[in-house]
Amino acid sequence: MTSAPSPYRTRRAVEESDLQACFRVRKEVFVGEQNVPEELEYDAHDASAVHVLAVAADGGALGTGRLLHGADAAGRTGGDPAVGSLGRLAVSRRARGLGVGAALVRAIEDEARALGLAAVDLHAQTHALGFYERLGYVAYGPEFPDAGMPHRAMRREIRPA
User: How do residues 104-122 score in pLDDT, each as one tens digit?
Assistant: First the structure.
């Protein structure tokens, strides 16, 4: 028995058009739906982060996420150079419930492994803790506000490829 082809695929965003698609999804979800001020959504880390993109069969962007590593991740990971920081995970409304978010997390973890990282940290909105827990992330530390929303730090150890 063969399974049906996935209605989307994930890939590293390399081309300028890919990056613009990532930014459009983030604007739709964070700025449009969650009312995050646009000046907080985009930052200097976007230039050096590894961005991933989920794309539908028709080429439309469905979701995105980014991985900070090295000095860019230090402020979010306790300064451990072996830990990357997953962030800006966003799935467009039309793609929710299709597994896009989990696929993006796994794609970011693959990018972290390729960089030789041993773990991935993230700052999860508290309503999303269960989603990340199902993917193997463990919450640590107290709840804290970020862009006016409650968050918790989480971490998952990843095995080398």
Answer: 999 999 999 999 999 999 9
Residues in the chain: 161
- pLDDT tens digits for range 4-30: 556 899 999 999 999 999 999 999 999
How far, in Å, CA of 31 to CA of 40, rounded? 9
SS (H, E, C) the chain: CCCCCCCEEEEECCCHHHHHHHHHHHHHHHHHHCCCCHHHHCCHHHHCCEEEEEEECCCCEEEEEEEECCHHHHHHHCCCCCEEEEEEEEECHHHCCCCHHHHHHHHHHHHHHHCCCCEEEEEEEHHHHHHHHHCCCEEEEEEEEECCEEEEEEEEECCCC
Task: Specify the residue for token string 């990018």.
Answer: 111
Q: φ and ψ at 106, to 5 degrees?
A: -65, -40
